[in-house]
Design goal:
The chain is 47% helix and 6% strand. It has three helices and two strands. A two-stranded antiparallel sheet has the order 1-2.
């Protein structure tokens, strides 16, 4: 046997301890993957909730702006949110992102003016119908 044949034989000879991963190594790798996946899932859920809250704030701002424009044009508040749609101030009533419904909006009636006998003063403000709590700790119904 020559020297080069002896080196090549030694180079490719495997030891019994080099046959693969141990169970401990596999468990450590799997536990690290699970920890990273759980952190990513929490971050994903928070980002989805953050997006819903931003959309809710935007929808509230748009509806309040439409109510103000209605009042500026007609000198009275709308009787319902559907009046804003039928008179062309909004294309449709937006969906409440938290309750996932267009029927859950809570309307705040306008204060009645002294000297008027009108029982329906109209809608002064609109709020979310959800009783849940936002990421900042405030209630959606208080926005």
């Amino acid at each position: 046997m020559t020297v080069s044949q002896a080196i090549s034989t030694v180079r490719y000879r495997r030891h019994p301890s080099d046959s693969g991963w141990t169970l401990i190594e596999l468990l450590v790798v799997l536990s690290l993957i699970m920890i990273l996946a759980s952190l990513a899932l929490v971050q994903y859920r928070n980002s989805v909730r953050n997006a819903k809250e931003a959309t809710l704030r935007s929808n509230l701002m748009l509806m309040r702006d439409a109510i103000d424009q209605y009042y500026a044009d007609k000198a009275r508040y709308p009787e319902s949110l559907n009046a804003l749609v039928s008179d062309g101030y909004m294309r449709s009533i937006p969906k409440d992102q938290v309750t996932n419904s267009t029927d859950s909006w809570q309307t705040v009636p306008a204060p009645s003016e002294p000297g008027t006998l009108s029982a329906n003063a109209g809608i002064y403000d609109v709020k979310s119908g959800s009783q849940d709590t936002a990421l900042d700790g405030s209630r959606y119904a208080d926005w």
